[in-house]
Design goal:
Number of strands: 0
Helix content: over 70%
CATH superfamily: Tetracycline Repressor, domain 2
Shape: elongated
Number of domains: 1
CATH topology: Tetracycline Repressor, domain 2
Order of helices and strands: HHHHHHHHH
Largest sheet: none
Number of helices: 9
CATH class: Mainly Alpha
Radius of gyration: 19 Å
Oligomer: single chain
Strand content: under 5%
CATH architecture: Orthogonal Bundle
């Protein structure tokens, strides 16, 4: 979901991300990345001191891409409705549509993949991964807090738990899409989460 670029650094990052999502970080060598990217070893070390620095750049790039996508989708949803619940429902619908319209099966989540291999990374990279997950939580939690100013949930719930549910559903949906080789599994999981939130809050406004 990142922006394309012809620079050698971005070509290295694009190639490395693609290979790592297929083979894992430990299973992807610098030589293999250089071969696929058609870049010399000197070119690699011009941009990165080693594989650890490459990992940090990959995580930052991935999180920045996600942040831009979510900011754009929320901006669109807020332009279409002033109701905080409807804004979140529109956001989820737009996100599901975007995932379903990917040209190829979703390749996987770099943050999730790195989480499975945390022993490969230093504390700085592990902290970036945690910050990325917390950013998703904070984004959805903030919207849910606005919703609960207007609507009463039909059962007791915690916005933080519902926000983490978004992360779990997206990551699980990516796994299902990769297993079945179709993005509609990811789309359907996002829409199921959307339906759950609608049933939890809609038609139950707070008394004024």
């Amino acid at each position: 979901m990142s922006v394309r670029s012809n620079s050698s650094r971005d070509r290295l990052l694009q190639t490395a991300e693609s290979l790592i999502l297929q083979q894992g970080f430990a299973g992807t060598s610098i030589d293999h990345i250089l071969e696929k990217a058609a870049i010399t070893k000197g070119g690699f070390f011009y941009h990165f001191k080693g594989k650890g620095e490459l990992a940090k750049a990959l995580v930052l790039r991935y999180l920045e891409g996600d942040s831009q996508i979510f900011d754009d989708l929320f901006a669109r949803s807020r332009s279409l409705s002033e109701d905080p619940l409807h804004q979140l429902l529109i956001f989820l619908n737009l996100f599901a549509e975007m995932m379903n319209n990917l040209e190829e099966t979703h390749p996987g989540c770099l943050v999730a993949g790195f989480t499975y291999e945390t022993q490969q990374f230093d504390d700085e990279v592990r902290d970036l991964i945690r910050q990325g997950v917390l950013a998703w939580r904070e984004l959805i939690s903030a919207q849910l807090a606005e919703i609960e100013q207007v609507y009463t949930p039909r059962q007791e719930t915690r916005p933080e738990t519902l926000a983490d549910m978004f992360t779990a559903i997206v990551e699980g949906g990516i796994i299902l899409s990769r297993i079945f080789q179709t993005n509609d599994r990811l789309r359907d999981q996002i829409l199921a989460y959307r339906d759950y939130l609608r049933l939890l809050y809609e038609s139950n406004p707070r008394a004024t």
